[in-house]
Amino acid sequence: MKGPLLHVKNTEETSTQTNFQKLLDEVVALTHGYGEGKTQTIIPFLHIARRSAPTQTSCGIINPSFCIVAQGRKTGFIGTEVVSYGAGDFVAASVDMPATGHVSKASRTSPYVGVTLDFNRKEVATIITEAKIRIQQFDVKPMAGALIGKFDSGILELFIKLLKLLKKSEEEALFVGALVKKELIYRILISPYGQLFAKQAISEQKSDQIERIVEWIRDNFNVPITIEQLAKKHHMSASALHQKFKIVTTMGPIQYQKRLRLLEARKLLLSGMIDVTTAAFEVGYESLSQFNREYKRLFGLAPLKDIKRIRNTSGLFSELRGE
User: Fold this and answer.
1) What is the pLDDT of residues 296-322, one digit of tens each?
2) pLDDT, tens digit, 9 for 90 and up, residues 6-64
3) How many Å apart are CA 158 and CA 180, to the nearest integer?
4) What fold is seen in the domain 208-320?
5) Which among 165, 231, 279, 321 is placed 20 to 30 Å from 47, CA to CA?
6) Which fold has domain 5-205?
7) CB of 49 within 8 A of CB of 39?
8) What is the DSSP string of 209-242?
């Protein structure tokens, strides 16, 4: 299968389109009052994103998650594939994946609203086992790390339940929220796209080598290493490592490491506590000119100009700082 995304359609009809829209409107209402950018709620695995205007393109890493869009639209790239998703769509990623994108449809009266549920693949595998969900037989070769499609009213109602918990005490939100999360993953697994969702989780969980390599690079992105050294460390051939890694993350291991380095350098520069030279060496670069060249290639501007642009762009500064 080509490309980093699996596109799926939900064949299950909602009771009525009007009812579904009312549920989407309820999500928008429940997130009213949250500021621009991405907000971490009191429930650790639940995030809310709101934008009152289209944003400029930014780069980042999509963590394993299930994100629904209640209003507005986003456009961007995951790997080399152009993606566009709006109200009623979901994006599910089962491995840390590099992505580039922007909010393409939003206004003050009709802001972009997205709600994201973080998960890990062990949680998915556990629920498959506990609920005795029958998964169709398939090979366990590494596959695309994300899928995009339509969610149904049952999924939406559980997200609404999580959002309503944010008005309760922290103790109740955390305890009940964990139960709702478990039910949400279950509902995703028995939905029309559940088999694809499960295939991602199981195939990648069984591809432990790639998962371990992703984790090692993420934890050691500033450590110099070649693909040959990485392959030897994980008992693989360099060609096999590159091919399997790219299938899952949409890019090769060294490119992935480079992306993490540049994203971290950008965060350091945004903190205002470090200069360009120090940031470059801090994330693992040995050549300042190479750092400046690759930074501009990824973000479109030299480091200091990019940071100035971000600070002058409403909503983008808090987004890229992870607030």
Assistant:
1) 998 889 999 988 887 776 455 444 444
2) 555 554 454 467 788 998 999 999 999 898 888 999 999 999 999 999 988 777 788 88
3) 7
4) Arc Repressor Mutant, subunit A (1.10.10)
5) 279
6) Jelly Rolls (2.60.120)
7) yes
8) HHHHHHHHHHHSTTS---HHHHHHHTT--HHHHH
